[in-house]
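Need residues for this backbone.
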């Protein structure tokens, strides 16, 4: 069997190639360039030339052929242009998920097959398992990696059965520490190389600067939302009523996420709600739409008044006090901010951190809230449109009216969250046991079975 390893110059893909060679496979390496430093739309810390140099050294050390392929055209069209389009709509895409679906396991895989490859291997921390049905048909499970701190199955949540059938993940059963040890013992040139960061195959970039290459910067208001707003919000109160109606007898409702750290949020500390399955199943879709609808704060309106100031009684204008919120600053454009963001806001004078809780693209307003426990940061339900639901194994597809229990994550490194998936005519609804921080339209929700299989994923619509 002839195997092409996607050699990036990093330690993970290097060890993947080394292990396959040790196992006796006919292995060759291919390095992909997905971005040109001279391209005018993005200037980042790319360093692809250094990565290519290290990758060539690794291939030489292992004793395998090395090839180079330029995939910058497909990458721009399928990943970068998509990112610009999504951000312009106020959504937050995940370029790494797109890169895997559209580039590594599509354009790259096609280039590898032209060189005679039967399979393509990568350094992802995940595993694949082949299963055979009673009729003899093969299908493939995508399994979370053994190392809980490095599991990368989330990034592959959009792969198809055809893509999985040609994919290999040689290091998915290993811990990162074991990969480093193997690389060091084999004296691989990448053994001490740090893990890459930033946009997939582009590198570290300042995201607002990146987006401003194509999206116009227009100054707008920053509005802080006070806690008093939620006591008067018809939508928030209706959501609370619906969620309460689904609780098991004798239990109370929690609607706020307890904060621990960026990579441990909701894993402990947050009270889990006990929703009754029968009540979930009988809930009208209209109510599911209501609890999955983000609050938009359009009813926070500011009016002005005139007053006279100083000894000369100069006439001035100011905003009247509003019990629901206050204009506290300006921003460079709503499309440059995302839900849950706290850095880069340029807002001071608060005793606690300030977070983005909503972006209004039409009116170019961003809404923020103070504190990790601000009500606007937490939501209990998200929705996925029917055409954006993806099942890794199609035989697992849910039918309309069906509900299932899965473990779900909405971002890489987030601990898996217990949730109920509800399939209706209007799409898929994910109801979490514990409220979640910063559910963001455009990101991917991925759901896993209890034994670690990544069963499906979908783009968060709201």
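Answer:
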């Amino acid at each position: 069997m002839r195997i092409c390893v996607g050699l990036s110059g990093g330690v993970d893909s290097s060890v993947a190639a080394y292990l396959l060679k040790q196992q006796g496979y006919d292995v060759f390496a291919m390095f992909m360039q997905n971005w040109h430093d001279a391209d005018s739309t993005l200037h980042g810390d790319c360093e692809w030339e250094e990565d290519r140099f290290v990758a060539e050294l690794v291939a030489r050390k292992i004793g395998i052929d090395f090839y180079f392929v330029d995939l910058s055209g497909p990458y721009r069209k399928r990943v970068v242009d998509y990112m610009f389009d999504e951000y312009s709509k106020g959504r937050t895409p995940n370029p790494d998920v797109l890169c895997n679906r559209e580039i590594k396991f599509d354009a790259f895989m096609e280039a590898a097959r032209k060189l005679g490859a039967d399979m393509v291997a990568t350094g992802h921390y995940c595993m694949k398992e082949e299963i055979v049905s009673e009729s003899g048909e093969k299908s493939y499970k995508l399994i979370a990696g053994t190392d809980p701190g490095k599991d990368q199955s989330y990034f592959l949540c959009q792969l198809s059965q055809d893509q999985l059938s040609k994919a290999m993940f040689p290091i998915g059963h290993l811990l990162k520490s074991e990969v480093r040890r193997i690389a060091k013992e084999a004296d691989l040139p990448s053994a001490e190389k740090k893990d890459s960061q930033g946009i997939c195959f582009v590198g570290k970039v300042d995201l607002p600067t990146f987006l401003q290459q194509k999206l116009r910067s227009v100054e707008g208001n920053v509005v802080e939302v006070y806690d008093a707003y939620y006591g008067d919000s018809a939508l928030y109160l209706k959501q609370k009523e619906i969620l309460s109606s689904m609780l098991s007898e004798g239990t109370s409702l929690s609607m706020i996420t307890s904060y621990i750290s960026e990579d441990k949020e909701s894993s402990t500390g947050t009270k889990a709600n006990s929703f009754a399955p029968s009540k979930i199943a009988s809930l009208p879709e209209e109510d599911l739409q209501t609890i999955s609808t983000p609050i938009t704060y359009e009813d926070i309106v500011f009016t002005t008044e005139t007053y006279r100031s100083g000894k000369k009684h100069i006439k001035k204008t100011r905003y009247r006090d509003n019990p629901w919120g206050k204009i506290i600053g300006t921003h460079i454009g709503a499309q440059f901010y995302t839900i849950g963001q706290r850095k880069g806001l340029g807002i001071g004078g608060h005793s606690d951190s300030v977070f983005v809780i909503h972006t209004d693209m039409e009116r170019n307003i961003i809404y923020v809230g103070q504190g990790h426990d601000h009500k606007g940061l937490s939501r209990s339900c998200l929705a996925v449109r029917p055409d954006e639901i993806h099942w890794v194994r199609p035989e697992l597809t849910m039918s309309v009216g069906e509900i299932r229990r899965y473990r779900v994550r909405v971002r890489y490194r987030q601990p898996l969250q217990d949730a109920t998936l509800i399939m209706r005519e209007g799409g898929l609804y994910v109801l979490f046991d514990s409220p979640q921080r910063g559910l963001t339209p455009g990101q991917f929700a991925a759901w896993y079975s209890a034994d670690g299989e990544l069963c499906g994923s979908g783009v968060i619509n709201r």
